[in-house]
Write a structure and sequence with these properties.
Layout: E1 13-20, H1 24-32, H2 34-40, E2 47-53, E3 60-66, E4 72-83, E5 87-91, E6 94-95, E7 99-100, E8 116-125, E9 128-137, H3 140-148, H4 151-167
Antiparallel strand pairs: 1-9, 2-3, 3-4, 4-5, 5-8, 6-7, 8-9
Helix pairs in contact: 1-2
Length: 170
């Protein structure tokens, strides 16, 4: 099966694209098991304190991050596509079962105030994985805001944490 490709719009999308030295099956487990995801999903010293994943199209993708000061940042989303060990697509624009999220509350902070869709693609590359996180935004302002918040550094740090965590399984 050939995976559908998603065209990157440089004005609206942010991409983290790397080859990592762990098999895609382990990366998939780290992304789709809530207890595993909580170990690596937030850049330290932040933590992911809660996670729910209903691994099906229309299923819930929920995380709650906590700052070092104890402030909590919940993020609720909807899974759009699941191809085991190859592709996971989820969006913060929808709640589970494709229910529209509605506008962000006035007091929403950071990522919870913006809608985006993440297309995570995993392809075997030798003994490792070609890992692509393609994050799509609805407008230039949100793309720039997400980039300014440290998208590349934060998502890159989390990927490094995922790799280090998965290597402890061997």
């Amino acid at each position: 099966m050939t995976l559908r490709t998603y065209k990157v719009d440089p004005k609206l999308d942010l991409v983290l694209d790397r080859v990592i030295d762990v098999p895609k099956e382990l990366v998939w487990k780290a992304w789709t098991n809530p207890e595993y995801l909580k170990k690596w999903f937030s850049p330290k010293p932040w933590q992911t304190t809660d996670c729910r994943i209903d691994l099906r199209a229309g299923g819930e993708f929920y995380t709650e991050m906590q700052s070092p000061e104890g402030q909590k940042f919940p993020g609720s989303g909807c899974i759009l596509e699941v191809i085991p060990n190859e592709r996971l697509v989820w969006t913060s624009a929808l709640l589970p079962d494709y229910r529209p999220q509605g506008p962000a509350p006035e007091n929403a902070k950071e990522c919870s105030a913006m809608a985006f869709t993440c297309v995570l693609t995993l392809v075997t590359k030798g003994k490792g994985t070609h890992y692509t996180a393609h994050v799509m935004h609805g407008n230039v302002e949100q793309t720039k805001a997400h980039e300014k918040m440290g998208f590349h550094e934060g998502w890159g740090t989390c990927l490094d944490q995922l790799v280090a965590y998965v290597k402890t399984w061997k």
